[in-house]
Write a structure and sequence with these properties.
Helices cover 34% and strands 17% of the residues. The protein is built from 8 helices and 10 strands.
Length: 248
């Protein structure tokens, strides 16, 4: 049967390259350098027009944590409504309280708003102080899937906890590793965790020469990537991951 491969994408072009590589599903975001934010309505609409892949749409209004103001949360609800109207196949979100525990009230509202479509609690989980309490809450709230690196920077480092979470879940929720997964460690992550699906990004850098005429200009922060750098999914890496995943 193989292991399902979900690719984290930051644009419609990323989605199309993922599909060429044989991915099974995509997570559609914007601003991947910030960990992924809500994509534009245009990105969602064009993804559904041009690709047959199931697209899980990120609902995250800003970077920098997961405890949101009332206005930010109402924005998330509105973004979910728009994404659903545009054909989103599911939603990805994570809401915490200020102490890092799961915000059950708001999470329940988003699960209800999903109207039966799959809901993924993302790696906000990885900063929760008590992972099994957090997972129990997410299960009770009716989320479909948990994305986690096992509370480490990379899934391989968090493999022991991921396996324990999968065992704790007892098929009440899907647990999907994500973080640092590549062709060289995919089999090890699967072996150590017992997972049947994985989440990863596989980008390569390309160049946009339109800014070369005045290289002194900086449009983002001084620590942002070079202004002429554009990252796009590397189809060959996706294809290699998918080939290996089908054998596991």
């Amino acid at each position: 049967m193989g292991v399902l491969v979900e690719i984290c994408t930051g644009s419609v072009d990323d989605v199309l390259e993922s599909e060429k590589g044989g991915a099974n599903r995509v997570e559609l975001c914007s601003a991947l350098a910030l960990g992924g934010l809500t994509p534009s309505p245009g990105s969602i609409g064009e993804t559904k027009r041009l690709s047959k892949l199931p697209a899980m749409v990120m609902i995250r209004p800003r970077g920098g944590g997961f405890a949101y103001s009332d206005v930010e949360f109402s924005t998330m609800e509105r973004d979910m409504e728009i994404a659903g109207e545009l054909g989103a196949d599911g939603f990805v979100f994570g809401i915490l309280k200020g102490d890092g525990t799961i915000d059950a009230r708001r999470t329940a509202r988003l699960v209800k708003r999903a109207s039966g479509l799959p809901t993924v609690f993302h790696r906000a989980f990885d900063v929760a102080p008590e992972p099994f309490d957090a997972l129990r809450a997410i299960i009770d709230l009716g989320c479909t899937r948990l994305l986690t690196s096992g509370q480490k920077r990379k899934s391989l480092d968090g493999a022991e906890l991921i396996r324990a979470l999968i065992e704790f879940a007892e098929n009440r929720i899907e647990v999907m590793p994500g973080g640092g997964i590549r062709t060289h460690n995919l089999a090890e992550v699967v072996r150590l965790t017992g997972c049947r699906q994985v989440h990863l990004a596989a980008h390569k850098s390309t160049v946009d020469t339109s800014v070369w005429a005045n290289p002194a200009i900086v449009f983002g922060s001084e620590t942002a990537p070079a202004e002429d750098r554009v990252d796009i999914i590397d189809t060959s890496i996706v294809a290699a991951i998918v080939r290996e995943a089908t054998l596991l």
